[in-house]
Each structure stands twice: as structure tokens, then as C-alpha cells.
Design brief:
Blueprint lengths: L3 E5 L4 H12 L4 E5 L2 H6 L5 E5 L5 H15 L2 E6 L14 H29 L3 E5 L12 H21 L5 E7 L13 H13 L6 H12 L9 E4 L7
Parallel strand pairs: 1-2, 1-4, 2-3, 4-5, 5-6, 6-7
Helix pairs in contact: 1-7, 3-4, 4-5
Length: 239
């Protein structure tokens, strides 16, 4: 059996696809999400499913400790949990900004903190953070969301530099538009309709499995090979 992989936001979309790919490749898994029934419905072997709000650091750490007691130390953490609430700053509910920063940034930091010191002590391990093309450039109605994803991209690269000498890999996957539930979080029907129209101009967005295959490729490189960043989008996506 391979070593333990932790995946947050694993109940749907990219997280679910990653869980399936890594399970097929023989990794034991800790799957974390709020919707436990969706995790258990995956029915994956060598898999611990935990209902955790990733903004709750203590619950997050307890789940990791429980999985390590069963499967051994975390080999790979995939910070996938995220929320996208699109809107314009002058009209958007500021609670939506707070939620995005709590889930997309603070929870990601909590996860990294939970595994980094042991990884450094073992001189190995991998962290894959799922950012976004919105962490590289801006888009209409994305100001606060872009802020969170620019933060993820910066944090990932900064930490990579700090832990590289310990043999720990930290990488950033920045997908373009992907067919997931993410857009459903947005409250403006007008913005959602415009986003759907945009996806049609590119002949359809990426599939979640496109990102899952990329994550598995990154993980299965030799430990001395770190793919620092992967920017992936539909061929016809503009911008």
C-alpha cells in the first residue's frame, strides 16, 4: 500500500475526482468535507471519511491524527476545499468576502501547518494547493475571489521556497473554468448566466477529472522533482 493522501473538499467536483484517481492508484485516503454522506457514497477502499469544516482547525487536526493512526504519516495533502462567490465590491455582501478568505486561505494555511513540520522532519512529502487561473489574472465580478486565489498562489510559492531544502514539495495547480458545483455558490443569477455563456464560447469547460489526472501526475514524480505550478485551462478558453 502507498502512503496516506489527505484531500479536502472531497465530496464533489475536483476533490471527488482526485479521490477516485488516487484511490485507483493505490493510495489510502483521508477524505474531508462537510457532506459526509457524499464521501461515504464513494465507497473507496482504504479510505477514512471525516465530516469536518476546514475552517475549524482543531477538527481538521483531529481528523489527520485519526487517519495517521490507521494509515501512517501523511505523504500528500491536497488543499482543494474552496468557495467562489462572485460579485462586485460595491454591492456584494461582505460576509461573502469573509467566507471566501476563511475557506480558501485560512483553512489552507491550517492544513499546511498540520502536516509541514512532520514532513520536514521526515525530509519528504508533498502539498498540492488547488488555486485558480484567477490567482494569476483578474476577471469581472471576481475581485474578492481573485484576492483569495492570488493569496493561495503567493503562499504556495513562498512556502515552497522555505521547505525545499528539507525535501518537501509544494505545488500549485491553477485551473481555468471547470465543470463543478462551484458556480452554484454565487447568489447573482445574472452573473451565473454570464459565466455559463462564457463557458459556451470555449466549447465547454474542463472536466474535474482533467485536474485529478494532473494532481496524480504531480504526486507520482520522483521526490526530487517538484512541479512548482501547473496552469491548465480549456484550449479555447480566453482569457
Amino acid at each position: 500500500m502507498k502512503k496516506l493522501v489527505v484531500i479536502t473538499g472531497a465530496s464533489s467536483g475536483i476533490g471527488e475526482a482526485i479521490a477516485k484517481r488516487f484511490s485507483e492508484a493505490g493510495y489510502p485516503l483521508l477524505l474531508i468535507a462537510r457532506r459526509i454522506e457524499k464521501l461515504t457514497a464513494l465507497n473507496l477502499p482504504n479510505c477514512l471519511c471525516e465530516q469536518v469544516d476546514v475552517t475549524n482547525k482543531e477538527a481538521f487536526v483531529r481528523a489527520i491524527a485519526k487517519a495517521e493512526a490507521e494509515f501512517g504519516p501523511v505523504e500528500c495533502l491536497i488543499n482543494n476545499a474552496g468557495v467562489m462567490l462572485l460579485g462586485q465590491i460595491e454591492t456584494q455582501d461582505n460576509n461573502e468576502w469573509q467566507k471566501m478568505f476563511d475557506v480558501n486561505v485560512v483553512a489552507l494555511l491550517n492544513g499546511m501547518q498540520a502536516v509541514l513540520e512532520p514532513m520536514k522532519n521526515r525530509n519528504g512529502g508533498t502539498i498540492i494547493n488547488i488555486s485558480s487561473i484567477a490567482g494569476r489574472k483578474t476577471f469581472p465580478n471576481h475581485a474578492a475571489y481573485c484576492g483569495t486565489k492570488f493569496a493561495v498562489s503567493a503562499i504556495t510559492e513562498n512556502v515552497r521556497e522555505e521547505v525545499a531544502d528539507f525535501g518537501v514539495r509544494v505545488t500549485n495547480i491553477s485551473p481555468g473554468s471547470v465543470e463543478t458545483e462551484l458556480l452554484n455558490h454565487t447568489t447573482s443569477s445574472e452573473i451565473k448566466a454570464g459565466y455559463e455563456d462564457w463557458k459556451q464560447t470555449m466549447g465547454g469547460a474542463l472536466l474535474a477529472d482533467d485536474i485529478a489526472r494532473s494532481a496524480l501526475f504531480i504526486q507520482e514524480q520522483p521526490q526530487q522533482v517538484c512541479i512548482r505550478e501547473l496552469l491548465i485551462a480549456a484550449t479555447r478558453q480566453q482569457p
